[in-house]
Amino acid sequence: MTKLLTLLGLAKKAGRLAVGTENTIxxxxxxxxxxxxxxxxxxxxxxKIISDKTAxxxxxxxxxxxxxxxxxxxxxxxxxxxxxxxxxxxADAVRKLLGGN
Length: 101
Prior knowledge:
By secondary structure, this protein is an alpha+beta fold. It has a single domain (2-97), classed as CATH 3.30.1330.30. It has five helices and four strands; from the N terminus they run H-E-H-E-H-E-H-E-H. It has a four-stranded mixed sheet with strand order 1-4-2-3, with helices on both faces. Strand 2, helix 3 (44-56) and strand 3 form a beta-alpha-beta unit. Helix 2 runs parallel beside helix 3 (44-56).
């Protein structure tokens, strides 16, 4: 999980992430998002919002086993529910780390 959080931190520094639920949903709506990564510990309401929006706009969403505080620290925040990866290369690298295609 450390490699994944480090990669997401690099994507943030490169300006390729939208951090937070509102920013993530906005990226998904605008068609900028290649992948949404969210903490499994978010509320059921937030999970539903993320799942519904990503399904509607045909964007993949993955929930990782990290609490929101640990997830947020990777981006210099106190707590973060989700991020949108707005770069195909970073999204592909994250999928590879998660064991996907």
